[in-house]
Amino acid sequence: MKFKYYLVLVLCLLGTLNSPAFAVSEDDHEHHDEESSSTTLTPAAIADANFKIEPVGAKSLQFTQTLFGVIAPVNSYQVAISATYPGQVTDVRVNIGDKVQQGETLITIRNAASGREYSLTSPISGEVTFREANRGEFAQHQTLLKITDFSEVWVELSAFPEGIEALQKGQQARVYDLHKHEHASGQISYIAPQMTGGHIARARVQIANPQGHWRPGMHVKTDVFSDTKEVALAVARDALQTFRGDTVVFVQEGNTFTARPLELGRDDGEFVEVLSGIEADTPYVTHNSFLLKADILKAGAGHHH
């Protein structure tokens, strides 16, 4: 009697294990396949993600060399003012830092020979950057004032030996303050023929300074555009993601986004040359592609657990 009871119990358990309640859904397995490289999103999810989509295409890659330097006044934009005739200084109307206009009276001197007073006026508009004149002093041929026009300034750059060969006069350059609050553009106008004692070559860029932001002595960073390469295919650097050991972009087909492994070439910091892995005009995600990577990996992790 006990044997029959146990036999019935075992048969009931076997029947329960084979019931639909324990079956694995094939659809769920495919949806959470941890090796999937695609994800399909609703139109609302795509809109919320704020993706930017662009077609793969040709680009002109701009390669730069980054140099550091310091702002300096332009030599030809400075004037030194001294007495026309020896005499006693009777009036000084400006101080260091004062802004002056061309033709403005700066100093009055009594001519020692004639006893008559004459005035020294500013030959340019600019700022007083030097003063060695005081009332009652005797002026001869020494410099009394210096006026500097800062509407344009020099960027004195330092280049190491490995980078000097890539520098040429006329190359375009973009200058940034070290906080990147402002930038200005110019050209390489001078490359020193000799290296300094520290094996550094000097190069120079002249930039406009209408607002006076670029002050002498300010340290700056400069990107010099040293080379250009036309490539048939390139993708935005910000679009690239590392996905399961490959460098990929996510291509769009309708509401489905798929990781596409790429073989890459030269990189100019903004765009990267594509050697293989994608065709021209393929739409791909250039902004917020990391959200797609996270969505696919999250689905795979959920299936794994």
UniProtKB/TrEMBL annotation:
Signal peptide: 1-23
Key words of the record: Signal, Transport
Protein's UniProt keywords contain Signal: yes
One Gene Ontology cellular component annotation held by this UniProt entry: cell envelope
GO BP terms: copper ion export; plasma membrane copper ion transport
Keyword RNA-binding in annotation: no
Name of one Pfam family that matches: CzcB_C
InterPro entries, alphabetized: Beta-barrel_RND_2, CzcB_C, MFP_Cation_Efflux
Domain CusB-like beta-barrel stretches: 152-223
Coiled coil: none
Domain CzcB-like C-terminal circularly permuted SH3-like: 233-293
PANTHER family cross-referenced by the UniProt entry: CATION EFFLUX SYSTEM PROTEIN CUSB, SLR6042 PROTEIN
Protein name: Cobalt transporter
Organism: Pseudidiomarina insulisalsae
